Task: structure prediction
Amino acid sequence: MATVEEFTHEMLRQYLDGRGWRWLVDVDGDYVVEFAYDEDFGCELTLYLIMSGKEKEILEVRVLSDMRIPKAHWGEALHACNTWNDTKRWPKVFLHVANVETDLFARITCEGHIDLEQGVHQELLDSFINTVTRSANGFWEWLHSTFGYTMAFTVEKPSQEIPD
Result:
């Protein structure tokens, strides 16, 4: 039987290494995996494993794409996110706009959170991350197959970087 342990960075590294993925740690200490372009998704995806909370007891799993959504299409993007959230349990998806007044582009975030203050065993941690990442892949595939580029969700690179 699996043993419940304190949630640690080592557990996240064990998950990532167990999949053979190349990963890095960003300036915030988050684990990042960048995946290549996938035709089924119509974009490149990036996985973030983030330890947050006062005692780093919360695991945040985020999957973002390189899609930038022009302001003229934010309403369609919100509709797509709401449709997904209304019919699917995982992941939570939302349109992220840092500043409604000045931003020209937005991005969709897929995420799941779990409080691990009481500890976790590696199998449950792996299962949770897998659930969020697989369902996020499902979202991107659904978005691409349902809407394609008709919503002008493109991977165009804006002239100035969009803040995360």
In short: The helical segments are 9-18, 74-87, 122-147. The beta strands are 24-25, 31-34, 45-52, 58-65, 69-70, 92-96, 105-115.
